[in-house]
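Deliverable D2.4 — example input (structure tokens):
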């Protein structure tokens, strides 16, 4: 362990008494609102460091009580846009090689893009129903030194432990991000550099060779040559499922950002894993459409066989796996779970302080309307195939 972490651990162990590291005052009993409770206790000095170095994502020692157990952790703010907002996301790293749900780190996400606090539950469920590897996610309430921070989501990180839990091996892993409006693209057009939109975090950190190979194939291919060239490197069925859910649930932030691209060494192909789903079920002026919105979708859907398989997946999801009735039930169940914590939320914008029941009704109607529109547009895929 680095020297500075050892020092912080010594200070944290002594915080019940007054020390140079500050003093932790035991918070009064807090309400779990019927959800998993994440309760951070941080000395005033370390909390000051955390809040004065937000964008540096400086981590500080803390104690967390979660799921009834107390643990020593190092905590930092995480995310991108949430760093500039009052309600911030957290990452916690457990001390002494302890694990929480099989992980050495865990994400406590504010999900600020979703005022309903329903979207993550719907989105991760939908991708799972489409057969994709999907992080576990659940609503939780968060406290810092006894002060209620609001309704969050505990989201399983996609790391070596994620694959280990699923009896899989970590290969190349790319995190798609969007900084300075560059984003994660699948074409070298215009001199695009993959490091502007992807961060390599996998088995070979900072290696981009297999991703660059995939992009070169996409750039050089035609609809006639693409299948033979891309299928040895990309799990096409996996991506078409990812695309179908992204389209049906308006995951407009998941085409150029907020997904993981994993090269699975067991099958020798890239697969998509969804991530950070607070921007769902809202119209985007250019990305809310049947075909999705990135270069990979454009290339694949130019192939007649892929286009028809995509249509089949959309119908399978709407008619069997993600029916309106099943989604209504999930929405109602999630709303019932989060109702009390939602009502106590401090950071929902005052301009949209509607009761949860209104969000529930609006979400259900949104899905109905969009499903109807998608069914009406499926003929476009047949028309394109004939042309």
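Example output (designed residues):
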């Amino acid at each position: 362990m680095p020297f500075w972490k050892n020092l912080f651990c010594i200070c944290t162990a002594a915080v019940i008494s007054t020390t140079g590291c500050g003093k932790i005052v035991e918070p009064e009993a807090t309400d779990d609102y019927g959800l998993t409770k994440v309760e951070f206790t941080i000395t005033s000095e370390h909390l000051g460091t955390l809040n004065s170095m937000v964008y540096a994502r400086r981590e500080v020692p803390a104690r967390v009580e979660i799921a009834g157990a107390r643990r020593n952790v190092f905590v930092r703010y995480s995310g991108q846009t949430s760093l500039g907002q009052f309600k911030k996301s957290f990452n916690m790293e457990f001390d002494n090689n302890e694990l929480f749900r099989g992980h050495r780190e865990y994400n406590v996400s504010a999900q600020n893009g979703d005022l309903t606090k329903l979207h993550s539950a719907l989105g991760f469920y939908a991708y799972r129903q489409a057969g994709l590897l999907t992080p576990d996610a659940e609503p939780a309430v968060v406290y810092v030194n006894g002060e209620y921070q609001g309704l969050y989501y505990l989201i399983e990180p996609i790391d070596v432990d994620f694959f280990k839990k699923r009896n899989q091996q970590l290969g190349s892993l790319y995190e798609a991000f969007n900084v300075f409006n560059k984003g994660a693209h699948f074409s070298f057009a215009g001199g695009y550099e993959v490091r502007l939109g992807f961060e390599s975090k996998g088995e070979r950190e900072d290696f981009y060779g297999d991703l660059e190979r995939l992009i070169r194939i996409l750039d050089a291919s035609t609809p006639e040559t693409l299948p033979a060239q891309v299928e040895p490197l990309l799990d096409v069925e996996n991506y078409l499922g990812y695309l179908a859910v992204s389209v049906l649930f308006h995951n407009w932030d998941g085409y150029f950002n907020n997904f993981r691209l994993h090269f699975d060494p067991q099958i020798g192909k890239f697969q998509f894993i969804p991530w950070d789903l607070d921007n769902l079920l809202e119209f985007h002026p250019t990305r809310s459409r049947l075909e999705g919105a990135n270069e990979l979708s454009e290339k694949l859907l130019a192939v007649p066989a892929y286009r028809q398989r995509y249509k089949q997946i959309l119908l399978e999801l709407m008619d069997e796996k993600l029916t309106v009735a099943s989604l209504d039930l999930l929405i109602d169940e999630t709303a019932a779970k989060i109702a009390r914590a939602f009502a106590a939320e401090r950071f929902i914008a005052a301009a949209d302080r509607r009761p949860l029941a209104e969000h529930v009704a609006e979400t259900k109607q949104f899905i109905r309307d969009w499903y109807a529109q998608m069914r009406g547009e499926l003929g476009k895929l047949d028309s394109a195939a004939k042309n």
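Residues 3-155 form one domain.
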